[in-house]
Amino acid sequence: MSKKVLVVDDDPDVRSFVVTVLEENQYIPLVAQDGVEGLEMIEKEHPDLVILDVLMPRGSGIRLYRKLRTDENLNHIPIIMFTGIALRSFLKSQKALDEFKGGEVPKPDIYLEKPVEPEELAAAVKKKIG
Amino acid sequence: MSANKILIVDDEEIIVKLLSMSLRSDGYETVTAHSGEQGLEVFKSELPDIVVTDIKMPGMDGLELLKKIKEIDSEKEVIIVTGHGDIDSTITALQYGASDFINKPVRDEALAIALERAKAKIAIREKLEEYTENLEIKIAEATEEIRRKSNFQRLLIKSSNDAIVAFDHDWKVVVYNPEAANMFGEAVKDVRNKMTIDDLYTPKIAKIFKNQAKEEKQQNTLPWRENIINTKDGRQIPVRYTSNVLYKKGEFVGTVSFFQDLTEIKRLEKELVQSERLAAVGQTVSGLAHYVKNILIGLKGGSYVVDVGIKKNNTDKLKTGWESIKKNIKRVGDLTQDLLTYSKQREPEFEVCMPNDIAADVIQLVEDFAGANGVLISKEFDTHIGEIVADPQTIHRSLLNLMNNAIDACMDDEDVSKKHEVKIKTYKDENNYFCFEVKDNGCGMDEDIQKQLFNPMFSSKGGKGTGLGLLVTGKLIEEHKGVIETETSQGIGSTFRIKLPLEKANAVDKV
User: Fold this and answer.
1) How far apart are CA B350 and CA B353, in angstroms?
2) Which fold has domain A4-129?
3) Domains of chain B and CATH, by start
4) Which residues of chain A are within 8 Å of residue B315 when distances are taken between CB atoms?
5) Which of B297, B308, B464 is closest, CB to CB, to A114?
6) What is the pLDDT of residues B328-352, one digit of tens each?
7) Which of B72, B166, B263, B345 could share a disulfide with B175, CB 3.0–4.6 Å?
8) Phi-psi region at A56: left, alpha or beta (left = phi > 0; alpha = psi -120 to 50)
9) Which of B293, B300, B311 best probes binding to A when mutated, by most A CB atoms within 10 angstroms?
């Protein structure tokens, strides 16, 4: 049975790109425009993988990421961060948040900086969920 | 010098002796001679201050001696001793310049008085000489000083970088320096003592100066003002000027005005603004790189989707991909235009236009996008505005930027329960400004964001903003001599209001 992959990105261009890549590689794509919608989808559809943008309106990329990594019911879902933000900046921001909130949120499984070739994205998905 | 040495001349030796003794006891120094010839010799060798001589002597008589002495020194005091009633010789002696007369026989008293008189005369003359000499030196010094000062002032006026023009009480030009000739374009020879204030100045400036002179010494010096003057050869020069009213004993005698050419300063100011702007563009580059990367992501993604569409013969994919590409091509175009607008000096191009129509066009451009994101666009146009003279580009671009920002603010609002709306309003305010207002009920802005609103490279939209939108808008409005006002409340929404002066536009219309 095909696996479900949720794309959370506010940019419709990115969504259509990722959706097409997923379809081409026989995954079932799900889409959400922001973190709030993303969480609803996760709770409803139980995707096998989440491809997540960092910067979205309402700061919800980071919020959703931390929720997915700290919620015991959700932290089994692998995440591919898919963003225009450099990894270093992202890690710095996470470290700052860790210090502020206490505890440590694990680093993302895979971090892809946009733009990526379709093959690269497909390979990353495959690596995580086969 | 005190007159103390007296020459006594008389052919009667006893008289010489007696007089000499008497004068010595009075404290005088005396020298004596017994004839005119001897008297002259002694006079030449002893240089007495006063000569007392008998008139009647054998050989050279007193008159002859007097004449000779006067030839040597016309100022010398010579007292003549005459016999009673010798009127003719007395008259001759007077003609020769005798100082005083004593009758024979000589009485001490009379001689003392005559000597005192002579001494007093000598003293006065000496004082006078001293004064005269001093006076001549002082006058020479003063003349030199005045000449030097006047030369210096002439040089000062001549070499001044300020144009200096002075008028007499009839408003005729009396001072007109080379810089003035340079500035007004009229040669010095054609202006000085020929032109009046009305020939030289624009009516406006001439009026200011004349009024200033009329004001009863209230305002002796005009504060510096700026204006544009027209030169003979048709150039317009921005100047800064002031003027002084000149009074002599309370009477108006003229005015002097000073002009400074501001062309260079204005040019430098412009250059500075321009270079600041270029620097700002430089600062924006990092933000821009991010934005450009996003465009690239869109283009790459879109072309991949198109490829898949072609391969699979899937029209939906083709459409989606092609939309992505088109949208991002447009973003490149917009960005380029923003960059050009921002980095280049641009004068508004005034023309007759209908602001309501422009606003309607802008609404049409953003309506679909807004609708797809749950934002309602509404309008409230003042139909009385009709045609105005303005730069339609400025209105279009500014309005589009504000509308896009307003829609973004709605989409960025955490409160999804709100019914989001962007309202655009046009009207004319009480100051005859054409105004348009874009009001949203989106996320609003905190103080931090407000402070940075018009800063280059600032964007609250992450990689989705260039940080150029309001910068460009601000510049366009500034070039149009308009103003932007902002009201915002976090979580409630923002209002941006642009006001453009209509009078200015109308003035241009008449030209």
Assistant:
1) 9
2) Rossmann fold (3.40.50)
3) 5-128 (3.40.50.2300), 161-261 (3.30.450.20), 263-328 (no CATH), 346-501 (3.30.565.10)
4) none
5) B297
6) 898 888 888 887 877 777 778 888 8
7) B166
8) beta
9) B300
